[in-house]
Amino acid sequence: MSIIGITTTVPIEVLIAKGYKVVDLNNVFITSEYYHKYIDIAERKGFPKSSCAWIKGIYGACVENNIKEIVGVVEGDCSSTKALVEVLKAEGVKIYPFSYPHIHNLKDVKKSINEFISSFNVDLKEIERIRAKLNKIRNLGKKLDKLTYIDNKATGFENHLYQVSFSDFNEDVEGFKKLLESKIKEISKRKPNSKKIRLGFIGVPPMTCDIYEFVEKLDAHFVYNEVQREFAFPRANNARNIYEQYYDYTYPYDLNFRLKEIKKQIHERKIDGIIHYTQAFCHRAIEDIIVKKELNIPVLNIEGDKLNTLDARTKLRIEAFLDMLSDLKEME
Question: Per its Swiss-Prot or TrEMBL entry, what cofactor is needed (predicted)?
Answer without folding.
Answer: [4Fe-4S] cluster
